[in-house]
Amino acid sequence: MTTRVVIRQAVGEDAEAVTAVRRAVFSYKAMSVAATRHAITVARPEERFLPLIAEVDGQVVAWGAAGLTVWTSQPGQSYLTIFVHPDHRKQGIGSQLAERLHQHLTEVGAIRVRTFVHPDGLEFARNLGYDGTRQMHYAGVELKSLPEQPETPEGIELVSFDEVDPQAAYTADTIAALDEPSDSPMDSMEYDRWLDEIWNAPSMDRSLSVAAMAGDEMAAFTIVETDGDRMWSGMTGTIPAYRGRGLAKLVKSVALRRAAAAGITSAYTSNDDENGPMLAINNWLGYHRVQTELALLRTLDN
Ligand SMILES: CC(C)(COP(=O)(O)OP(=O)(O)OC[C@H]1O[C@@H](n2cnc3c(N)ncnc32)[C@H](O)[C@@H]1OP(=O)(O)O)[C@@H](O)C(=O)NCCC(=O)NCCS
After folding, report:
1. DSSP β-bridge partners for residue 6
2. Domain range 5-137+294-299, its CATH number among 3.40.50.720, 3.30.390.50, 3.40.630.30, 3.40.50.150
């Protein structure tokens, strides 16, 4: 019997099924159904976001998505994500999704595509013309035993994101993001889009996200996203003038403690291999590596 694969555009109602496939593939990521629905529906027209799903006998077995990377000033940058449920691999589903998505990216003027793969997806990606650039380490920690909380330096006040002006959080996030290791500079995030994609995302838990304020200025922050009893660190950042004073360690220490008190049992995060300070902080907090993904790039022939 041959299986019938149907590929179609994903809609918000597919979020639950897509999340289930995602969980089967990435046990070390935390993303709720609401966050998946948000990811499917939040993109603006200029992002040219195309979310696809593959169904076998009416059941969602794979996800593929691509769009233009709008948070960088570099022209023509784009991204592509594909994952196929482990029970449905080696049947050409990933290749069909890749073909549709590369065609789309070419049509919307993308020049370079970035994707992340598991080590076991490397051959698939290389066959599609992708080549290695960076490594992204995923790590997790159980929140039962955390190191002692560092002292709060004088002049710094710790507050939750419930108590901060979103504009202050936007400023700190966009300044810190300029120094996060990446293939393209993160230098083009407008406030309205940041509000839609980050501040108002359903996974953002403002009561657990923590800021270190120096007067009205946000010196450091850590964003907590939740998925049931698991949390994901959306971003931790310290603005340059306040780096090297233990503030990132402090805000993340406090956030993990507050999360544990709120019933969260495990925390996950990802860091670029070149992010020495953040890897040092997470090692100190007790995170252990659970997976390394490869960040790959290919160019498109236009
Ligand atoms: C990563 C970042 C948040 C660190 O902020 P910070 O407030 O300076 O961090 P802290 O002072 O709390 O701690 C830094 C730790 O890294 C260590 N460190 C600094 N540079 C390092 C390097 N190149 N390699 C290894 N460790 C390093 C420090 O020694 C310190 O550890 P210690 O207290 O055990 O000595 C900040 O550099 C930043 O905003 N970077 C850009 C955004 C980013 O990459 N965020 C993380 C995304 S995953």
Report:
1. 55
2. 3.40.630.30
237 lines ligand 1 (CB under 6 A): yes
- For ligand 1, the distance from its centroid to the CA atom of residue 27, given in whole angstroms, is 27
246 Cβ below 6 A of ligand 1: yes
Whole-number Å distance, alpha carbon 248 to ligand 1 midpoint, is 7
pLDDT digits (tens, 9 = 90+) for 250-291: 999 999 999 999 999 999 999 999 999 999 999 999 999 999
Q: Is the pLDDT assigned to residue 302 strictly greater than 80? A: no
Average pLDDT value for residue range 91-96: 96
Q: Determine what percent of the chain is predicted with pLDDT higher than 90.
A: 94
Give the count of alpha carbons within 13 A of 42, CB side only: 18
Superfamily of domain 140-290: Gcn5-related N-acetyltransferase (GNAT) (3.40.630.30)
Given a cut of 70, whether residue 2 has pLDDT beyond it is no
CA-nearest residue, atom 25 of ligand 1: 276
C-alpha 206/C-alpha 260 separation (Å) is: 15
Does 5-137+294-299 match 140-290 in CATH topology?
A: yes
Per-residue DSSP letter, 204: B
Taking the C-alpha atoms of residue 195 and residue 191, their distance in angstroms, rounded to an integer, is 6
Q: Is the CB of 247 under 6 A from ligand 1?
A: yes
